[in-house]
Amino acid sequence: MNFLPKLFATLLLSALLPFTAAAQKKSNKVDVAEALKGYFTPVTTPSAVPDAEGFIRRWMILEPISKPNPTNRVFTDSYTRENLSVEYFPNQLTVIPKDGDKVKVTMEYQPPVDLTARRPSGGGQNEPKFVKATLTWHALDSDHFFVKLFRFATGLGKDRYGVIFWTVTVINCEEDIENVRLSIGSNKAARWWVNGEELLLLAGDRHMGVDSAVSDRITLKKGRNVLRGATMNGPGMSEFCARFIDDHGNPVTNYTITCN
After folding, report:
1. DSSP code string of 56-84
2. How many CA atoms lie within 13 A of 183 on its CB side?
3. Cβ atoms within 10 Å of 78's Cβ, excluding its own
4. In the predicted model, is pLDDT for residue 11 greater than 60?
């Protein structure tokens, strides 16, 4: 006699599950939008264009990977290259993620930091302890020409010091665009690639000046071009700006930007 009510309840639950999942996804979007307000806006349009000065504002950003560095003085060329060559997650130099995609990483553990303090407490473990974590990709438009990675991490309640940020975006060209240069401003150590080719290695504790690091000439090919960056932060702020310029330093803007 209890079979029909139970069957009805099961069918009702099955029917409601897609709506519940959609509502949860929408709620998560609202939460992210509120957490990053003033610095980022979740992507809502199929494509974007560079701003008037050519800066790229649309990015896929992975939640930060813990890599404890109590000082920025360690960011030599060799240290930067070595630690940004480690495979923290599968296909990290080829993946084109979608919003909400999750990756499993193995990373160094670091104790929680007082987020009201200006700098981490310093000091490190003699023997690093490694932990596994699941991190999420976020499709975001920066509200400013520079991308505030520090605010991204802080807004989402993630580690903001001693971390590595992975960022990806897709440049779509209607035809080949020749003799352009990738131009990066960054206040932290970083590596940058276009279509899998490393173009820039930025070492040291830097000041973020526009066009402070400029690559050799490249060709943005007709179709999709993948721009990828990895930024490593110790204590302090972390941010970058990116654009393509011509030989005269003028911004190149005749392309569209998508997340994937």
Report:
1. --EEEEEPPEE---S-GGG--HHHHHHHT
2. 23
3. 9
4. no
- The reported pLDDT for the residue numbered 69 is 84
Region of 198 (left: φ > 0; alpha: ψ -120 to 50; beta: rest) is beta
3-class secondary-structure state, position 197: strand
Residue 204 reports pLDDT greater than 70 = yes
Which residue in 189, 258, 250, 252 sits closest to 227, CA to CA? 258
Q: Is residue 228 within 8 Å of 93, Cβ to Cβ?
A: yes
Which of these CATH numbers, 3.40.50, 2.60.120, 3.60.21, 1.10.287, describes 38-258?
2.60.120
The model's pTM is: 0.84
pLDDT of residue 16: 53
pLDDT 10s digits, 62-75: 999 999 987 888 89
124-160: pLDDT as tens digits = 456 788 999 999 999 999 999 999 999 999 999 999 8
Q: For the chain, how big is the Rg over CA atoms in Å?
A: 21
Dihedral of the CA atoms 236, 209, 42, 69 (nearest 10)? -30
Instruction: Quote the pLDDT of residue 167.
Output: 98
Nearest to 230 by CA among 105, 47, 111, 45: 105
E-state strands within the chain: 40-42, 58-62, 65-66, 102-108, 130-142, 163-173, 177-186, 189-194, 197-202, 213-214, 218-220, 223-233, 240-245, 256-258
Whether the CB-CB separation of 224 and 197 falls below 8 Å is answered with: no
Domain boundaries, the chain: 1-35, 38-258
